[in-house]
Amino acid sequence: MKHHRMEAVGVGVFNSLAYILALSVMVFAPVSYVAPVREISILIGTVMGAVLLSEGFGRLRIIAAALMVLGVISVAAG
After folding, report:
1. Which helix (H) or strand (E) holds 76?
2. Contact 73, 43 (CB under 8 A)
3. What's the pLDDT tens digit per position in 19-36?
4. d(CA 73, CA 37)
5. Backbone region of residue 64 per phi and psi (left: phi > 0; alpha: psi in -120 to 50; beta: other values)
6. E-assigned strands of 8-51?
7. Contact at 8 Å (CB) between 26 and 34?
8. E strand or H helix at 16
9. What confidence category does residue 4 fall into, taking pLDDT thresholds of 50, 70 and 90?
10. Tell me: the pLDDT tens digits for 43-72?
11. Do 36 and 55 form a contact (C-beta atoms < 8 A)?
12. Phi, psi (5° rounding) for residue 19?
C-alpha cells in the first residue's frame, strides 16, 4: 500500500464515480440499455488482458468480446 497509495485512491474514486454515473443514467434511459453498456468494461479488460498481458486464448476471447458488443448494439438498435 505504501508504494501504490495514489493508484488505490484513484481506483476507489473512479469506481465510485462510475457507479454514480450508471445510476444517474438509469434515470434518463431504460435499464435494458444501461446495464449491457455498463458491462462493456469487462470486455475492455478482456481485450487488455489478451493484448497487454498475453493471456491464453486471446483470439477466442476477443472474438467472444466482439460478439457481446454486437449484442449490445442490437439491443440498443431494437
Report:
1. helix 58-77
2. no
3. 898 888 888 888 777 777
4. 9
5. alpha
6. none
7. yes
8. helix 5-28
9. confident
10. 888 888 888 888 888 888 888 888 888 887
11. no
12. -65, -45
Please report where in the chains the cell 476477443 appears, as a residue.
Answer: 62
Number of residues in the chain: 78
13-45: b (≥16 Cβ within 10 Å) or e: eeeeeeeeeeeeeeeeeeeeebebbbeeeebee
Find cell 440498443 and name the residue: 76
Provide the grid cell at 35: 446495464
Could you give the CA distance from residue 72 to residue 43 in angstroms, rounded to a whole number? 12
Other CB atoms within 10 A of residue 8 CB:
10
